[in-house]
Amino acid sequence: xxxxxxxxxxxxxxxxxxxxxxxxxxxxxxxxxxxxxxxxxxxxxxxxxxxxxxxxxxxxxxxxxxxxxxxxxxxxxxxxxxxxxxxxxxxxxxxxxxxxxxxxxxxxxxxxxxxxxxxxxxxxxxxxxxxxxxxxxxxxxxxxxxxxxxxxxxxxxxxxxxxxxxxxxxxxxxxxxxxxxxxxxxx
Length: 187
Known about the structure:
three-stranded antiparallel β-sheet; five-stranded antiparallel β-sheet; alpha+beta
């Protein structure tokens, strides 16, 4: 018995359209930036510490499921998901290509968490859960933007140390307010 033919998926990595493409059980996002643009850098929260993934001209990094992470200048919150996320950075003479590969179905996909922590004392400022397995990744990013806007309205000041968190922002730069643009530039 032969297996049924499954068509291939054309995934255009680094094309710069900043749109999500579906590829089997995954969503793939890509962007093209100039070298002068602020780099998209990964921060992970592990064992009470904030760790920066080394910035190199070429990076392929797996963010394990269950690890809170923030990609500076891409989204202004900490995301935790059950599935792994793959981050790719490839620098050329003039540009930088970025790609994110995110699982959207399967046993590890369930509830994603959006959170903010005080940059000074690390206290949790806000945390909200979203059922990504039920509503999908696109709905998650829309919800995360709404949560970021609510965070900006009244939750930026740390109750533990009174430090004011930078403005939060969503995934899509095209929807940024002036405050969100300031936040995206800062962190």
